Amino acid sequence: METNPILTPDEMRELDKQTLKQKNISEFTLMQQAADACMETLVKNELIDLQDDILIVAGPGNNGGDALCLARGLVERDYRVTTMFAGERTKMSDSAKKAYDALAAIHEIFPVADSENFESNKDRLQKKDVIIEGLFGLGLTRPVEGVFKNIIQWLNHAKARIVSIDIPSGLNANNGLVEGIAVRADHTLVIQNMKTGNLYGDASDHHGEILMVDAGIVQDRFPTTRHRLDTEDYVGFLPKRKNNTYKYDYGSVLVIGGSRGMEGAPILSALAAYRSGSGLVRISFSKTANLIHTISPVLQVETLDEKQGAKQLLHKKDAVLFGVGLGRTEEKHKQLLRDLLDSKVPMVIDADGLYYLKEVIKKDENLSHIVITPHHGELALFLGVTSKEIRNDPIGHVETLVDAHGLNILLKGPCTLIARPGETIFADNPNPALAKGGSGDVLSGIILSLTGRGKNIFEAATFGQILLNQAAKAALEDLSEQSLLATDVISCLSTAIKMLQ
């Protein structure tokens, strides 16, 4: 696990200020330190050598200042360097101006102020081996336009190795979304701390290989409440079974869901729970369900009767999954969920269950015994906002909801967020093969199984995400991304568990 916390751009800027104060140095000195550390990383990882023809592309902000300082360091060490400055010098920060002047004293910089100027200078940019870009950095929050758009378009068609400083230009450093167009880097030198935009949104399609750069920025301003998921931390999470055990030692769990047309969802969840190690799994189908599916003989099946009440449903049950394929038409489901919440049984609430949770949740209610597993659209519906608002600020919405109710959230996506009060994990292991119906049902079933076996519900969600991804990777040994089915993932859960024991 990385020791440095994942920060928002504003938090990173606070750390920079703290560093200047504690070390009594100027912003320009810190910029030089960052550039020197970037150069050391480039050399150590053999991304440049003295034979390379290197192009440095710098913008007017501090990210451009880092690039200009890097160019000066390379020139002083006899690397073959061409430097292009894009934008207007009048818009440069004071530190970036110092970096420009220091480089200009020993090396030619050719300016590109507009698109016409860029087009006329393209001949100077051809046949480069490595291009290192520092156009925007952390400050970009609006669509890329003008000459910068032209430059990024050109970079994305260049045959050279592309290296971005801190974040590929064109990505929003808060949420990782592309602001119109963004650099597709082969490598990204992330300075000191991962920023939220290095991991979320479109980040994984643009960063290439991420290399961390230690620039000597202090780390005592923010606690490590946000960090990346490290699979190695969970090796041995499921120990091998003892011989003298029986089924109830491994959890008896209940899946409530499956309305007409959605009967397959709870079956997938239940089978995933069994494959993840549960001793007993029962499905309570909605009365509207039409059981045309072939149901595995290992599953216990019943028709949901709300008149029974939560107490009867929970008899000898260690955990409950509520909502997969349940539908949103039965008013009785609201009271059932309310009773289940009051029972304090560990619960996974997914899909249609979130619709009912929104109706019955109480203000300031503590829900630390549940985990919800929405995708962006479901979370937007639950919070009464648009999906765009969730995409623009996923971390803010998740952490606010977590703090309000003490619950656990797993927000599904290419970078999955797993949060509880005081901790947010970024599981940045994108797998487009899982962008298919049933994947979420499988994940919910895995988490249900782990929770039913007595695991802490937050850790169950975290390890459940690991198991899902490891099983999908195992399945892709024989299948294509396009062909993978949820049932294939279930079949490979055994392989994933063996890898992690």
Walk me through this protein's architecture.
With 501 residues, the protein is α/β, with parallel strands linked by helices. The protein folds into 2 domains: 9-224, YjeF N-terminal domain (Rossmann fold); 231-500, UDP-N-acetylmuramoyl-L-alanine:D-glutamate ligase. The chain has helices at residues 9-23, 27-44, 62-76, 94-104, 115-120, 146-155, 264-275, 309-313, 332-343, 352-360, 376-383, 387-392, 394-405, 439-452, 457-475, 486-491, 493-500; strands at 53-58, 80-86, 109-112, 130-134, 161-165, 187-191, 209-213, 226-228, 252-257, 280-285, 300-303, 319-322, 347-349, 370-372, 408-411, 416-420, 423-427. Helix 3 (62-76) links the parallel strand 1 and strand 2 (80-86). Helix 2 (27-44) crosses helix 3 (62-76). It starts with 8 loop residues before the first helix and ends with a helix.
Amount of beta strand: 15-25%
**Which class do the helix and strand fractions yield?**
alpha/beta
Q: Categorize the overall geometry.
A: elongated
Strand order of the largest sheet: 8-17-16-15-14-13-12-9-10-11
Q: How many β strands by DSSP? A: 17
In the CATH hierarchy, what is the superfamily of the largest domain? Ribokinase
Whole-number tally of structural domains: 2
Largest sheet: number of strands, sense, barrel closure: 10 strands, mixed
Radius of gyration: 26 Å
Overall pLDDT confidence = 95
Looking at the overall shape, the CATH architecture of the largest domain is 3-Layer(aba) Sandwich
**Portion in helices:** 25-40%
How many H/I helices?
17
Q: What's the CATH class of the largest domain, please?
A: Alpha Beta
Straight-line distance between termini: 19 Å
CATH topology of the largest domain: UDP-N-acetylmuramoyl-L-alanine:D-glutamate ligase
- Uncertain runs are none
